Amino acid sequence: MSYACAKSFWLSFMVLTIFKLETTAFVKKRAYQTSTNGSYEAFLGCDGDMDTFSLTAEVNSKWLMKLDKSIRIIWIYVSIRAGTYGIAVKDTESEYVSCANISKPKDNAQIMKKIITCSNSEFKYGHKVLITSLEKNPMQIYEVEIIGVSQINQTIIWKVSDSVDTKSKALDNNLDTFYSSEERTNASWILILDATYLMKWFLISIRGGKFEVHITTGDAELNLTTLCKRFSLPGIIQHHTALECDKGMRGDTIVLKKMDEDSLRLFEFIPISNFTLTF
User: Fold this and answer.
1) pLDDT at position 24 over 80
2) What is the distance between the alpha carbons of residues 129 and 136, in angstroms, rounded to a whole number?
3) E runs forming strands in 139-272
4) Confidence at residue 163, expressed as pLDDT on a 0 to 100 scale
């Protein structure tokens, strides 16, 4: 896309949509779409809630997230209605760089969930993420998250097993730093929160192995009732993955447990849904 086209395209967003400003510890983000169906505005596609969604009224739609500054983009998590889409990223002075095209046939599983890594290895920073529908259907986006924007609210962290305070290397929004367990068997990482919350979705950057995630209250014993998810990743390389508990779970303690030999190396642990306080 040329600079002139991109500029004209940006103006169309300004005219056709209403935006909501969201502030995090790192950036401000605004969302735009080429048309809006009813009250399903663009910001609902990046509000931290996996149950809400944005929805366009027209086919051949586009949706844009704009940040107030460029950040390092490692990957993008997208939860969107099944279909075919193009995803591109733009820095302040550059043209749009294609990250990937994603596709899922419309079947019983109407929602497509993907973690996108930009294929252009030279592209590391950006402040715009553009999603384009490549089919003649309205666009329905449940959530778009960028590493560097999402982070657990530090005020709700009471204790982390790898730190004498709450400054964990697995919670610092830096995919180059990591927690590495001293144990090579039965290794685990524990995050204790200040109250009981309802939790379901997480993004994890971790070295390969077999793992379990448990959500408990206090010092409750780990068992099938506390199990959020089992997952396995190959090799000893760094992986980025999304985890969804089999159901929403209440607790004040998150335990990531390594089920095979070797140490646990955790680069980042990020919730991608809002924590909901329960009583």
Assistant:
1) no
2) 21
3) 140-146, 157-160, 179-180, 188-216, 227-258, 265-271
4) 60
Rounded Cα gap, residues 89 and 263, in angstroms:
35
Alpha helices in the chain (DSSP H): 3-16
Give per-residue burial for 91-114: e unless 16+ CB within 10 Å, then b.
Answer: beeeebbebbebebeeeeeeebbb
As a whole number of Å, the CA-based R_g of the chain is 19
3-state SS assignment for residue 34: coil
pLDDT at position 124, please?
61
- Is residue 276's pLDDT more than 60? no
Closest alpha carbon to 228 in 246, 210, 254, 240: 246
- Amino acid identity for residue 170 in this structure: A
What confidence category does residue 10 fall into, taking pLDDT thresholds of 50, 70 and 90?
Answer: very low
- Does residue 206 sit in helix, strand or coil? strand
**Spatial contact of 81 and 139, defined as CB atoms under 8 Å apart:** yes
**Please, what's the b/e burial string for 242-260 (b: 16 or more CB within 10 A of its CB; e: otherwise)?**
bbbbeeebebbbbbbbbee
Distance CA 193, CA 166 (A): 10
Find the mean pLDDT for residues 74-89: 89
Cβ atoms within 10 A of the Cβ of 193, count?
19
